[in-house]
């Protein structure tokens, strides 16, 4: 389960209950213990387990586990509240929350699990029933799948314990790790399983020496393929990411401060981050780093890379102060990431700039925003309403309409993963119809209804999705973040920017294609006297030196952030706001 938003639910357990010697409020003892439930998701059924305990101070807390994806790996819960027969808590590392109501007759909690979208979840007492133990297959199995001239790596991970056998699948070249595997069985030398998220079924034969597993990989609408898995010498646990050589490590030739600041435009949102400051008294020019889609920590960590830590280190050595912060609801920052739109995140960025402007060591007339990917939307939104922003840097930011961006992104990603042009062409009209309906809807509820009407059995078949996933898809497509995204007008927002703007993109970017978006950005900013737009050859969406731009390649690359890109950003800022440093 992905890490997600931290949810703040107000006060902890009431002061009276925590300090008095009277019995705790009704319902609090009912929630203490182990609870489990099953979520119906696009990846298939997912079991979740929550263990809730009372601390020495009387407060309620505990941990969550996703045994189908990460068995035995508990993550902390946020504060647990029980009031008037209702329970609520967050799971900060999953950016998730749960709210439920006690059902006395059934002795369970019935409620909603929210992780970007809201899903019904009934929590039953006790641990989930153990799965069947499948003997003799524990470990990691590596294989490849050939689709239309593209080779996709697969890693099957099998783990057995007294809780049964749990199996997951990694597809690194599709950027997918820990996909739940279902119906895993072995009868003599015959082994089979399904991958619900992709409707794949595998049926194969184990070799006499138990070292290879070969069989048919079947997916609706695709020709059957032969996949051969080979047992590796490692365990089923995924190895830690290799050490990334660019990740900065102390001692640093600059100052590092842990800082926090409130967002006055959003109640309950306190952002926590790291400020790096060049040596000396200043005042220094400063950059606020804004991450891309999904919840991120202050380093924008992905697959072991920490691009924002690397960029902050580079800029600070050049005399530029840098503030990077955990996204709202993630890491140490509070708020609800799943309920926020890009416009909400723009108020977080403005709050960061406001915090910097109040410091004596920062030049208040030289504070800018540096946004990556969706951050390249968020930065312009913030700068269009905050006249104190001195500059904007767009790193793989969008310039076309988001409808066009989505079409280009889907096509390039699917081609890189072995999809056929005819399959892409078949699904695009359906997706266009759904997304146009969402964009035209005045509210999230109206968007859900519009999508629901259009997701006919015929359209579900065209998308090759089971009808059982219809309601989950409705909630995903119609959620408020997506509705705002589809209505975003990049040209109109960029057209309001009159401060210096630098826009760069990599020629191998398959998520925000630079050949489409950079010209659109230049056109939208043609009124602005200080605009630099540049495509950097051979770089991907994350500004790594790449060969294909594919997601699997990003995981494998040692480089985190190409120096040519960081030098360009630093040179551009220093040329306009001075205070250059040569600390390298």
Question: What does this entry look like structurally?
Answer:
It is a single chain. With 584 residues, the chain is an alpha+beta fold. It has four domains: 15-125, Lipocalin (Beta Barrel), CATH 2.40.128; 139-231, Beta Barrel (Lipocalin), CATH 2.40.128; 276-401 and 489-577, 3-Layer(aba) Sandwich (Rossmann fold); 406-486, no CATH class. The chain is built from 15 helices and 26 strands. The strands form three sheets. It has a nine-stranded antiparallel beta sheet with strand order 4-3-2-1-9-8-7-6-5. Strands 13-12-11-10-18-17-16-15-14 form a nine-stranded antiparallel beta sheet, with no helix packed on it.
What is this entry, summarized?
The chain is of the alpha+beta class.
How much is the radius of gyration in Å? Answer: 25 Å
Shape type: globular
Number of domains: 4
Structural class: alpha+beta
Number of helices: 15
The major pleated sheet works out as: 9 strands, antiparallel
State the strand order across the main sheet.
4-3-2-1-9-8-7-6-5
Q: What does the average pLDDT come to?
A: 90
CATH architecture of the largest domain: 3-Layer(aba) Sandwich
Beta-strand portion reads 25-35%
Q: What is the CATH topology classification name of the largest domain?
A: Rossmann fold
Count of beta strands: 26
Q: What oligomerization state is this entry in?
A: single chain
Uncertain spans, ≥5 residues at pLDDT below 50? 1-26
